[in-house]
Hints:
- This protein has 323 residues and is α/β, with parallel strands linked by helices.
- It has a single domain, classed as Arginase, Chain A, CATH 3.40.800.10.
- The chain has ten helices and eight strands.
- An eight-stranded parallel sheet has the order 2-1-3-8-7-4-5-6, with helices on both faces.
- Helix 5 links the parallel strand 4 (145-150) and strand 5 (181-191).
- Helix 1 packs across helix 10 (297-320) and helix 4 packs parallel to helix 5 (171-177).
- The longest helix is centred in the C-terminal third of the chain and has 24 residues, at 297-320.
- It is globular.
Amino acid sequence: MTEWPRPVDGTVTPRFAGPATFMRLPVMADASGLDIAIFGIPFDGGTTNRPGTRHGPRQLREASGLMRRVHPISLTEPYTLCRVADLGDLQTNPTDLMQTLDLVTAQVAAIRKAGAWTLAAGGDHLLSLPLLRGIIQAEPGLAPLGMVHFDAHSDTNDSYFGGTRYTHGTPFRRAIEEGLLDPKRIVQIGIRGSLYAADDMDWAREVGIRIMTIEECERMGPDAVAAEAVHLAGGGPTYLTFDIDSIDPAFAPGTGTPEVGGFTPREAMRILRGLQGLDLVGADLVEVSPPYDPSGGTAMVGATMMFEILCLMAESRARLRPG
């Protein structure tokens, strides 16, 4: 690849024109020569309540066309730090959950082996599991990863409906059991909402996960939340996962399991901006469900968070580039 990919310039071609791609980047057939690959995973077979996140990647692509090239605070321009492109959507089987987990794992492993780090748009939160599997399959020496996790829910339940172990409420329990994540380097930010039982999160706390409820986040303030996340998750390769339901449904109603009392977009952006310095080796943004927000506002919030995450990943990748 002789020229680095660049977004279509909104001062040359209007942002409402042309094909919809992530950040208006070119679409590549494979990850060869890329530093960061952005792609969609249109799958919601792990959803336990309201479906629709299979349509998230398409709407997130369209919304991401409003992103410009340079971060307004850090002045990071990810496309000058790294070779970034849209890799399209990964193959899934909407009628077979277990096959989809295997398909996504294999495709992510191939992307990683080609040299690219991954920024994925879901899809439901179960997809974090095969994303993590694929990274570690390609580079076993990275295991176990730390993780910064924005969410209303811990997603560490054991099973649903009498024994189903793979849903969007179980991915991180499975990931810890499989040795993909170090629970003592996991920070969950913004947890809230009613519980199925009083002991719902006992397992997570017992294995060492740091759960920061929304009430604690409010008391601490965004800067202190970010600082603690860097302190606890830092010191090694780290994954970032952002569930759009961490945002209050007043700003992001288009999601399957909304919980009132969440972050404003500004608070979430401030926390993300405080994560500079983490060794971020992969990330995802999940649970955008367009049928519940025809306005597209939820996708706009999601695309904005994806740009924030992309800037963090580009800085991390550039720091680790040889030479």
